[in-house]
Amino acid sequence: MGGKELAVVNNTRPLNLREISARATLREIRLQGHVYVELRQVGKRSIFFCTLCQTQCFNDSVLNDHLNGNLHSRRYAAAEVTLFGPNPWPFSDGVLFFSTSTDNDINGHEATSNFTGKSSSGGEVANGCKKDTTCVRGHDKASKRNGKNSCRFIPGVLFKAAIRNIKAKFLGYGHIGAKVCETADGHRDMTRIWCAWLGQDSSTDCQGLLSSPKCDFAIMSFSYTYDLGRKVAIDEAHDSFSPGSFFEIDELGHRRKKKRKSFSDPEDSSDSKADRLSGCSGDASGQLHASRLISNKFTRKELRKQKSLTAERTCDICGQLMLLGKDVSTLLNCKTGKLACSSRNTNGAFHLFHTSCLIHWILLCESAMWSGQSTNGKATTRGRKSKQAQKNSIAKFCPECQGTGIHIEGDELEKPRCPLSEVFLHKLKVIEANKAWMKKPEDLKKCSTGLHFSSDSDKIYIQEKVVPLKLLHFYRADE
């Protein structure tokens, strides 16, 4: 691409022409309307990443080939129906949602915003920000119109290395709806379920949706940091790191044996520096000074490596990494006002998931509740729920610890609700159902995401209708 403008380079960092070129390309790509493309760090290299397709592109030509390819065309067509709209989702979680405005790249520089772009097919990108539109991240947008709903306080949360009450700003509403199909004999199946983003829109066309019953869980979002929601023994690990340290901390925070690294490693630049220093000074003080330099540099290197490992946490629903600075979420029990994980621990820790993944999990919960209620009215045996109803009733909890956020007395913790194998199957169902949805999403005229469930091929449906279900509240931690 010609006419690339050189980026402003921080004088404290070494000049990297490849990185400057990548940033210039990114600006051009985003100006063309590809707001879902970003720069990510893979090792020491900056690469392009297409959020729509979850595809890595290692240079300009690969990126251009991808954006003009069939896979991207299909995903873009789905995004036009679900993600591009005048009122976009206020999240950027790196697996489905992306930011259309302030998108800090891998080194903290802001990408170009406030544009009206063109798609790869030449059409206007609907959620590109225009000059008279403020398209901001959700945590910067708290409405004053909602009075008591504008914020709430969540008690006993492990946040920024301390257990505290955190202030949660109200972001807006998501409306959960579904498509129900009926056979000639009266049997009903839910074939699709979705969440459409209403935000804080109280216009006439949303009044009917806003009257839906409130979901018993809400989405509580955060900007991801490595220590969010848990205690990380980084400070304790500092004392154990030394040039000859026998242990290292793995991704789960456990200590394990490690190979002792030899200072003859040619990749360790501190080795040659120490040789020069020891050569210049033959006395004991010179050797001691050189030894300290080696120790300090090696310790810092080890700490950086261990911190990086600690930061690499994966979403327990989709299994993909959660990225620093991206949006992650946990479940909030609307009835008790506590995080769902609070009933499974007493130290304020909680589990995190990509925001879109947690929305999909809630949709699965709601579909299971609907199916269970539908089944209960027809198929019961000796006053007990049918097996199908029992199976459908197990998904209403944090997908990692099975906490629901109920009030607990003393040290008695909430018991797990079902075997881990069943929870695993539900997570697979979420992934597959969302893939099916993206192949042929529902056109709701609002930004949305959803699930599509496969049905028996021999069933013949004579009627289908859209059913409004619940109103899902979204909050964000006031950081």
From TrEMBL:
Alphabetical list of SUPFAM superfamilies matching this protein: beta-beta-alpha zinc fingers
C2H2-type domain residues: 50-72
Pfam families according to UniProt: zf-met
Superkingdom in the source lineage: Eukaryota
Region (Disordered): 258-285
Protein name: C2H2-type domain-containing protein
Lineage: Eukaryota, Viridiplantae, Streptophyta, Embryophyta, Tracheophyta
